[in-house]
Specification:
The complex is a heterodimer.
Chain A: E1 4-6, E2 10-14, E3 19-25, E4 32-38, E5 45-51, E6 56-58, E7 62-67, E8 72-77, E9 86-94, E10 96-99, E11 103-108
Parallel strand pairs in A: 2-11
Antiparallel strand pairs in A: 1-3, 3-8, 4-5, 4-9, 6-7, 7-8, 9-10, 9-11
Chain B: E1 4-6, E2 10-13, E3 19-25, E4 31-38, E5 42-49, E6 56-57, E7 64-70, E8 73-78, E9 87-94, E10 104-105, E11 109-113
């Protein structure tokens, strides 16, 4: 069936460095993608989204890149901070949300 | 502030019990979802509803049922709880597809079946 996946279960970065979290999706008909952040003991929270008619979208310290040719999505976090430590999920939407397995971002002081 | 509220943060139930997990949203959203979250498996969709009294099976509906009698409330029912249903359960809601279609999540219910 269709699936959304992340390349790495865990990513460890130094505080202040940039982080890049990757995601591959398989449903070429999906036209909307979302990144969520889930902190320990909480539900996922929306970070940023992108529609398939775009290839880049920027937020505050975060950028999402979409490459439809290879069905790849990435989340870039600039100047990573300890508060960015969390599990990050990408999701595609076609009526319902389909989530990847998540990448745990660990920020080293 | 938008809000999705799940009735319990933690629940412990016995095998064979009937379990109700309640979710309420105050955003007048049409769509509501129930997921379970397990280590290494991410979020898996159990059921979703796109309107009152409407429901659709997700990827893992076995052992579960749902009820949506009112737009703001979506209940997940475990007819006869089993230990393999021990998990974190997440409820979410979203508007019908449109300009903003992100889903908003509740804080989760951690269910333990003993």
């Amino acid at each position: 069936g269709e699936s959304v996946g992340l390349h790495l279960p865990t990513l460890s970065v130094q505080e202040g460095d940039n982080s890049i979290i990757n995601c591959a999706y398989s449903n070429s008909a999906s036209d909307y993608f979302i990144w969520y952040k889930q902190e320990s003991g909480k539900g996922p929270q929306f970070i940023i989204d992108i529609r398939s008619n775009m290839d880049k979208r920027q937020g505050q310290r975060v950028t999402v890149l979409l490459n439809k040719t290879v069905k790849h999505l990435s989340l870039q976090i600039a100047a990573t901070q300890p508060g960015d430590s969390a599990v990050y999920f990408c999701a595609e939407r076609e009526g319902k949300l389909i989530f990847g397995q998540g990448t745990t971002l660990q920020v080293k002081p | 502030d938008v809000k999705v509220t799940q009735s319990s943060r933690y629940l412990v139930k016995r095998t064979g019990e009937k379990v109700f997990l309640e979710c309420v949203q105050d955003m007048d959203h049409e769509n509501m979802f129930w997921y379970r979250q397990d280590p290494g498996l991410g979020l898996r969709l159990i059921y979703f509803s796109y309107d009152v009294k409407m429901k659709e099976k997700g990827d893992i509906p076995e052992g579960y049922s749902v009820s949506r009698e009112k737009k703001e409330r979506f209940s997940l029912i475990l007819e006869s709880a089993s230990t393999n249903q021990t998990s974190m359960y997440l409820c979410a809601s979203s508007p019908m597809d449109g300009v903003n279609t992100e889903a908003f999540f509740g804080q989760g219910t951690r269910l333990t079946v003993v």
